[in-house]
Amino acid sequence: MNLSKFHTFLISLFFIFLTATVISHPQASFEASKTGLSMWWEVVFPSLLPFFILSELLIGFGIVKFVGLLLEPFMRPIFRVPGVGGFVLAMGMASGNPAGAKLTARLRQDKQISRVEAERLVSFTNSSNPLFIFAAVAVGFFHNASLGILLASAHYLGNIAVGLTMRSYGRKEEAAYTGKKTIALPSLKEAFLALHKARLSEKRPLGKILGDAVTSSVQTLLMVGGFIILFSVFSRLLSIVQVMDVLSVFTNALLSLFHLPANLDIPLISGMFEITLGSKLVSEADAALLPKAMIVSFILGFSGLSVQAQVAGILSETDIRFKPFFAARILQGIYAALFILLLWKPLYLALDEPYQSVFLPFRDQEAVSAAVSGWNTLVETGPAITLTALAVYALIYCYRLSARTKKG
What we know:
Order of helices and strands: HHHHHHHHHHHHHHHHHHH
Largest sheet: none
Number of domains: 1
Radius of gyration: 22 Å
């Protein structure tokens, strides 16, 4: 049996096992599906939809090209990606996973970046959004607002570290079809001319642009929702059939190697599948705060196989390869955990020192309450936003379908 046939056999065996487990445990599968659907319905869809739609509009009207030319002298020498990468980095950090992949794929489809540049860019522009880190993880799970500063700092520094590491990726492949690029100082006039040219080249009317932005964003989020539900069920079933216990043998040995508490093995495995569940289990574990913070930081950096599957689905619409992204997630998990260790004393412990006035705004109870209130508002209004967006999507889809039928 050759390697290809062996892979086919393993994949078939896996899905047969998964199907049999779902059939034999219908109640657990149903509860896990509801959990995944609730997460997508209440939080993921309403929090990502505005960013996705605005990003599509900014790209369509050429504003991203304007920003890209201005950021070229910064992004090119540091990360070896075009200036538009700065826009993707900012939007990815603000909106969370998988916005960086969505925007990178969109730029690649428009041929604004090469394949190697896209693979570099997507490797360090996917991250958890600040609201999730502060409100859900730090306050919601750990009941410790100060921890949010440490986790966010380690997480985003991990992103930058991955970008610096991946800047040398694909150097030989890139050199085969590109020459040496000269980096000019930004010119507002040239940037505005590029914006104007991009706007004139866009032949779609405004209504069509808006409709395309909504439909493209909703379609991507529907796919994201499918992956969230699938991995929620998958993680739950693995726990029921005690596969988690088997996998914990390996994670237990790994944790022991780094002198971390062994009882964090199951939370770590759960987090490698889905970050929300893993972070919650870590917060509930009986261990010191420092190792728990390191494990949570690794989970947030690794992003979980659920997010990685979402990114793989988005990248499959382009020629961007998934392997560099997967390697970057392992790197970011390691970097983020190390940054927790490095920043623990100068950042987290400094929060308890009265003379560290620079941290006082983050310890203000009103700021903490605002973060929690923002998260609760999102959860409460999320279903209404999701329903409204899906209704608009259905109307646009039906209108375009009827228009095609009339033309036919």
